[in-house]
Give the backbone structure.
Amino acid sequence: VTEGQKNLLTVLEKESNRLIGMLNSLLDLSKMEAGMMSFNLESKNIRPLIDEAVEEIGPLVEAKKINLEVMATEGLPIVKIDSERILQALRNIIGNAVKFTPEAGRVRISVRSIDHQVEVSVTDTGPGIPAGNLVTIFEKFQQARTGGPSIQGTGLGLAIAKQIITRHGGKIWAESKSGQGSTFIFVLPV
């Protein structure tokens, strides 16, 4: 195999994995929407899942020189969650924040207990989301039109996150102003 062929095979492998990931996301979302996905709820602390999602996105954070910080209050309550599904939601939300934050920007993840719920918020210094898109971004195949450079994605990540959070009895929403970054917040009942 020549060097050029190796490079082509590497690109093919990367794109094949991306396509597999997209198909798996679409299948997951279809199962959730049909009520056919089972959730394995266990009493857990959400903080280790946040740390795992942050560690996984680490290479992109470093490559973009983003300042990523996690702030959590002490003594977070235990919540009944499906760890793998909540981790999937966290990956999607944190991944979006990092993806849409420009180089040398900032992403802050805050976790606290409030009104018998655990609240997780992810704030970025990205381009922000126009007010008209704050609800539709949680629908499948939707991405906010920020006016900035186009970002590659399927528009499934936030739809999946919403399904997961909702199936846990929680709520998710976004707050933003165009040009001033975004905050994605979700709450889970204790």
